[in-house]
Design goal:
The protein is α/β, with parallel strands linked by helices. The chain has one domain: Transcription Regulator spoIIAA (2-Layer Sandwich). The longest helix is centred in the N-terminal third of the chain and has 16 residues. It is globular and about 35 Å long. It starts with a strand and ends with a helix.
Length: 109
């Protein structure tokens, strides 16, 4: 996981594919509960997502919402996007096509 402090209020995270994805999402959730920053997750390297990773994403979303922070997902591959559509996650998460769009959408709020 590559984590960059994009600004004083935004963290950008480049996620890896499984098996690292599981550990990354767990560590990120724990870290964001303490940092209280907006988060952009770049999924460009993620080719598969399973139910436990979906659960971790939902936990991260809940933690950020409770702190009045934003979460944006970007760079989602077609096969992963299909999972989001089938499970209804596309309506729960704010998604941008690429990293610059995700960062801009948070900065404009």
């Amino acid at each position: 996981m590559v984590m960059q402090e994009w600004s004083e209020n935004i963290v950008m995270v480049d996620l890896a594919d499984d098996p690292e994805l599981t550990d990354e999402l767990t560590a990120l959730t724990e870290r964001m509960e303490k940092l209280a920053k907006n988060v952009v997750l770049n999924f460009s390297e993620v080719k598969f997502i399973n139910s436990s990773n979906i659960s971790r994403l939902l936990k991260l979303r809940k933690a950020l919402i409770s702190q009045d922070k934003e979460l944006r997902l970007c760079g989602i591959a077609v096969q992963v996007w299909g999972v989001f559509l089938l499970t209804g996650l596309d309506s729960l998460f704010d998604v941008a096509e690429d990293t610059p769009s995700a960062l801009a959408s948070i900065q404009m709020k």
